[in-house]
Amino acid sequence: MKLNIALLAGDGIGPEVIDQAVKVSDAIAKKFNHEITWKPALTGAAAIDAVGEPYPDETHDICVASDAVLFGAIGHPRFDNNPSAKVRPEQGLLKMRKKLGLFANVRPTFTFPSLLDKSPLKRERIEGTDLVFLRELTGGIYFGEKGRRDEGETAFDNCVYTRVEVQRIAKKGFELAMTRSKKLCCVDKANVLETSRLWRETVQAMEKDYPEVEVSYEFVDAVAMRLVQWPNSYDVLITENLFGDILTDEASVISGSMGLMPSASVGTDNALFEPIHGSYPQATGLNIANPMATVLSAAMMFENFGLKEEGNAIRNAVNKALDAGFVTEDLANGDNAYGTSEVGDWLAKNI
Ligand SMILES: NC(=O)c1ccc[n+]([C@@H]2O[C@H](COP(=O)([O-])OP(=O)(O)OC[C@H]3O[C@@H](n4cnc5c(N)ncnc54)[C@H](O)[C@@H]3O)[C@@H](O)[C@H]2O)c1
Ligand SMILES: CC(C)[C@H](C(=O)O)[C@@H](O)C(=O)O
Ligand SMILES: [Mg+2]
């Protein structure tokens, strides 16, 4: 297969982890006879520095013309520490998601056999966890009207959802549940928020089309608790943008590290693959960040092209590295940590 992949490395550890995903993907291409053409493009603070805006038109054109996008991470402390900055790296990420129509963010949470005792949660709680969040990605409070009034003394962020936005993510949730254990949890705050009541009402109306799916409706605050208490009781969870952002970082503790969590952001016409973590500024340039989340995002990319064996080959290499203890410092004991690029080399060699 010939694949054109837009490569948006971004900021902080973004370029370091992306390099490893490229190495591993190139090893896959060699083994399975594919041809990958990488199309690097600017995004985030790097794009602000170069051209004054975090998601330039040229980058968008490259994304649209590609078969998929592989994304590292964006964000820089000089913006995080300056609340009044008008142009911010994160705006680029949001604009990109919106312009590419990536309304569904698929964020799986699973455990790795050799890491069961690495999690701060007890083995018997997390063993067997295999759940997927479908996080709505182009609506809600992230995209509603926001601003200040009263001479800056009052701030607002509006949370808005349309029924159609809820229907399309819920449809994905029901369809995914049908291919798994037929359990769907709708995460909301319908006891308080009107947008959540629209979510609940919309999902309830869709239940009749999927009679085999057992649907539960749970409040987000309770899910935040049960997620770490009984994670293996969940299968597919659908949720609005902000709740999904928060719960998936929480869920990374189940697997053992933020540096392990991949994701796919999909829409009708485009697909983008990105780790759930950020630019981890403290680790920039130190060759210590875990590249596995980005490497596993590349595995999701191959699977999205229908290349299951390729995706599995990546997962097997990651499992082998974890079993062998060939890991970065977030997962290592004491002195036994390997560098980001060494882990990438090891994975590529073991494809
Ligand atoms: N999708 C994205 O690009 C994205 C996501 C989240 C945050 N951000 C941005 O990243 C910047 C830093 O934000 P933050 O510190 O809250 O979140 P972060 O995800 O960058 O880091 C939080 C913590 O997670 C751990 N971590 C993250 N990635 C890791 C990796 N690859 N290997 C090992 N450990 C890892 C580290 O302990 C780190 O301190 C901010 O500017 C933020 O806006 C971007
Ligand atoms: C950086 C930020 C805009 C982004 C989000 O909130 O969606 C990040 O936290 C993520 O999870 O991808
Ligand atoms: Mg996040």
From TrEMBL:
Residues at which substrate binds: 97, 107, 135, 221
EC nos: 1.1.1.85
Cofactor binding: number and manner: Binds 1 Mg(2+) or Mn(2+) ion per subunit.
Record-annotated membrane-spanning stretches: none
Site feature: Important for catalysis: 142, 189
Task performed by this protein: Catalyzes the oxidation of 3-carboxy-2-hydroxy-4-methylpentanoate (3-isopropylmalate) to 3-carboxy-4-methyl-2-oxopentanoate. The product decarboxylates to 4-methyl-2 oxopentanoate.
Protein name as annotated: 3-isopropylmalate dehydrogenase
